Amino acid sequence: MRILLVLAHPLENSFAASVARTAKESLEAKGHTVDLLDLYREDFDPRLTVAERGSYFDERYDSSEVSVWVDRLKAADGLMLVFPQWWFNFPAILKGFFDRVFAPGVAFDHDRAGGRIMPRLGNIKLFWALTSTGSPWWVVHLYMGNPVRRLLKRGIAAFCGKGLDFRMIALHDMDRVTEAKRKRHLERVRALVSRI
């Protein structure tokens, strides 16, 4: 399986980078091909351009400025996202990746007759998010309703693909966890990813 592994964290020595490294090593050890897309290191610009927004409902979306990333998404069999949750949401660079790359003609089509979205990412069979939050589990789930999971599963995965293996693996209370708990989380990631 060819996995597009998307990392969205500005610090090269971050815990997210450790998670991405762990996932990559585990996937490759099982014989999968991994395309690591480090949004910060590749200087991905999250801002939707005038041409992109202007062509959003046209016959053909102008993806010329992001064609390299579009091609990588289209070549993948699976998508694995690694990112921290900030303010109960995606980092801006990852949100921009969705805005610019998960676009009409790439991730979905507009149904001209009814306004629905028709999925186009039939190549993607696996959609996983490996994430962390600064808040405790109860705040994310009980108070906030786990917005990132809801956005990913219902808003992106369901609208862009069908029959996906969707999972979100999160480390909560990140700002206060011990080094031992971080290591246990990396082992959990390794074990889960090794089953793919």
UniProtKB/TrEMBL annotation:
InterPro entries: Flavodoxin_fold, Flavoprotein-like_sf, NAD(P)H_dehydrogenase_qn. One of its GO terms (molecular function) is NAD(P)H dehydrogenase (quinone) activity. GO terms for cellular component: cytosol. Residues 1-191 form the Flavodoxin-like fold domain. Gene3D superfamilies: 3.40.50.360. Signal peptide: none annotated. It holds the Pfam family Flavodoxin_2. SUPFAM superfamilies: Flavoproteins. The keyword Oxidoreductase applies. Keywords: Oxidoreductase. Belongs to the NAD(P)H dehydrogenase (quinone) family. PANTHER family: NAD P H OXIDOREDUCTASE-RELATED, NAD(P)H DEHYDROGENASE [QUINONE] 1 ISOFORM 1. This is NAD(P)H dehydrogenase (Quinone).
